[in-house]
Amino acid sequence: MMGGATQLVAIVGSPIAQVKSPANFNRWFQENHLDLAMIPVDLHADAVPAFIDTLRGWHNLKGCVITVPYKQVIAPYLDHLSQRASLLGSVNVVRREADGTLCGDNVDGEGFVAAARQQGFAPEGKKALILGAGGVGSAIACALCEAGIAELVITDLDSHRVQALAATLHDAFPNTCIGHEYQSLADFDLVANASPVGMGDSGELPLPAAMLETLAAGCLAADVVTSPVTTAFLARAQALGATIQTGPQMARAQMGNLGHFMGVMPLGI
Questions:
Q1: pTM score of the predicted model
Q2: What is the CATH number of domain 109-249?
């Protein structure tokens, strides 16, 4: 039960009904007897500047998790960005300081890699395909480079976005081979859908079904979509012998990073 002294955090995006964070955070707050709560905020794009202004003066709101489609939209409005958030031009978490200053970081990639390691995947020296170069795809690509991935292929419907991300990562990680073309999935150790394709049980696949058939058994197939838990992409990949990683697994893996940045959780929960 929330009261007048309850401290808040929020998750901001649109649509927002499918996100798992409020249930995960609020369960942890309750289990640890904390007077804290996470609220979902389904925000219209036109309201972003006004929301940021409101956030500066919202005394009992400690921070926000940022999700689709605002990770890159909100970054320029903040006062301070972490090094990786600045590199990517994208944030997935904001902390409000006592004086109203807003600080942003992006821990999507950390969460993804942590979840992948839980599935037995070690990025060092491996080859990965990232489907989507938006906020979450960029963060995953960056974290994989940090973790020692040898070769990275990035695709997106927006070719300019792919080129810009590839150039940024090449400058930051010159020893990683970064490209945007592939003929088969057979050589990839990891294939990750970092796009919204498949959200809401649409049954859509992030790549053609014929291409998916070339997926190697033993490959890790990962999806950032949280609802449904097992997307059509993951179901097809699992049937082909791949190990799968769900969106909720990634979300749970990064919860401590998000909560720690906002000042409401310890790391490594």
A1: 0.88
A2: 3.40.50.720
